[in-house]
């Protein structure tokens, strides 16, 4: 595309309203006739891209998004996309021959003004600081300065963000590194691991291949480590042999040469992702030799936390084995500044908020012991491990109690009972079998009566009639009743819990706050005044906020991990007219929890239910329309379907 066409499109994109031909002519320093010619030719190639009227010209931004720059890549349109594009562009040019990047040329490439680029550079610098990198500028020319390792880490971070728009796969990685045989690289890794009896899961393999291919690409572009970054680093003999063999295969097939420092870094990357053995072979006799004393101390502390705070059975041997090996690998990553990205992060946070909250507390415990901060991606992996245990225990609490009414006839009632147990397993508990209604006490607490004979409609309990033979239709009718009863019990329990922790003094709507800090200060002050918390509550909340954001799309659930409130309470803030900026989210619903440790189970239940229910936009709209806390509770309970 010609330079003037680029400038014209860039100018139109910079303006939200119609732009006159004379204004465009002045900006491009050409005649108005030339402007009309340019637009006609642009629309000839991109039909309908630029609209014209008496007011001037207006560009179709949706069509403009589909335009490609001269190199054939998609144009970045959002601030975040431009920040990532700018960083990768600068690093790519640096790797190709120590060339600086011209911001004016960069602005032309992506059809934005230099002023826009300069504004973006503020965010570029902020992101670079997270990786201990900085911008060096000379007039309009810039470079990224810092260690080669940190440059590779930020490239990995940005590329993973880009991949996350799609389903992460080897095919997606190949679109960024088209000149490399990733299947061959994958084969080299997996074959050598088998030979040395190491193991790697699919998610870890994707992360590993991405990190290794970035290293290969940088070495090819003569951007390598000058010296070892960790003096005196020691690896086991088998570990070194594995890394050397993988390095040799890579050198042979990808035509590069690993320096001693690059070899060491490859070893670190490999050991951050690989496991020494199958978890099934881990036992009390060999565990210490495999993972080390430090790792076992962390596991013991985490198991104690899971038991005392979340009532999770952490003595399950399968859980201990898998989780211990995961923590061992995690420690290697933490010691060497690596993070394994998790494509399930957002899904886990939004669909399993309590499990993720549990993982946040585990991460905090690990930080207390090791002084290493964990990223949310790592927390999501921890959530995967502890989630199954938590869900198994939750399922055991969802039992429906039943009484079977079956007039005595040989042992048919026993046969029917066995059929029901086989079909519904632990979901139902058959309290007893009776032969007449008179045998059932009116005060006996039972969820469901299963009867083979007619029952009066006036009976004050849920019941279902089935045949003595229990056919498929009977199973379906029982299932319908189980679902109905489960839903009713959930509603009743949640309503009781919300009534227990709610207070009309803790319900506010559409209060104008500049930021989340101001909102949290307001809520904590009210709760302190009412005697629910102490003066340290505000800082305790931000200790939790610093671990991982408590924002879930349009919902925020700030709370302290200390669980030392004088009373358990929930502050409700509904701000649909004045959403609060909260860690890159626009939040219209805020629940601030003060938690007394004795009542932590209530917090767990309410926390999990509120987030899952109100992440659905229709449910959120119903709740934000409430004007008092009683209506709010009824609306939340009504969201159960």
From TrEMBL:
PTS EIIA type-2 domain boundaries: 500-639
Claim: Transcription regulation is one of the keywords in the record: yes
Presence of keyword Methyltransferase: no
Annotated coiled-coil segments of the chain: none
Record-linked InterPro entries: BglG_antiterminators, HTH_11, Mga_HTH, PRD, PRD_sf, PTrfase/Anion_transptr, PTS_EIIA_type-2_dom, WH-like_DNA-bd_sf
Superkingdom of origin: Bacteria
Lineage, opening ranks: Bacteria, Bacillati, Bacillota, Negativicutes, Veillonellales
Name the record gives this protein: Phosphoenolpyruvate-dependent sugar phosphotransferase system eiia 2
GO biological process: regulation of DNA-templated transcription
Pfam family name, one: Mga
GO terms of molecular function: transferase activity
Residues of the PRD domain: 176-280, 290-396
Keywords of the record: Activator, Pyruvate, Repeat, Transcription, Transcription regulation, Transferase
Gene3D superfamilies: 3.40.50.2300, Mannitol-specific EII, Chain A (3.40.930.10), PRD domain (1.10.1790.10), Winged helix-like DNA-binding domain superfamily/Winged helix DNA-binding domain (1.10.10.10)
